[in-house]
Design goal:
This protein is mainly beta. The chain contains 2 helices and 14 strands. The protein is globular.
Length: about 160
Amino acid sequence: MGLFDFLKQKKVEITIYSPVNGKVILLSEVPDEAFAQRMVGDGCAIEPEEGHICSPINGTLMNVFPTNHAVIFESSEGLEIIVHFGIDTVKLEGEGFKKLREPGAIKVGEKIVEYDLSKVITAVPSVKTPIVINNMEKVQSIEVLNLNKCVKIGDPIMKVILK
């Protein structure tokens, strides 16, 4: 052990798990400039199948938007994550979405919102679902896992190394 080993603190690694069933894609494939160009933050997206929006982390469910199309989480390490179901889904004013729980402590895979994919898919330009870290100042790196593969709720989709 060297004199300055205390400076080489181990970086904190966080795994983010799939909040929906579907195929993992790059954020650049989302047909919305704010997400595709990472203006909101960085991460990945999923082409969803029928089902639920679930927690991608252990931590806190901070907010479910009034229209139930987007959910904000915070990990115990302070990482803020937005799951935004589809593009222009806010215009549905909650139609096709049903909130299942209120903010509070949450575990990976817990159901937050139920959605009717067949109703939503015909009413919006895309149901591609960004999973975005919006406080990137805390992030050193992101690795997207299972890219172009189908995942189930709770499967790993990103490894995040904090600064």
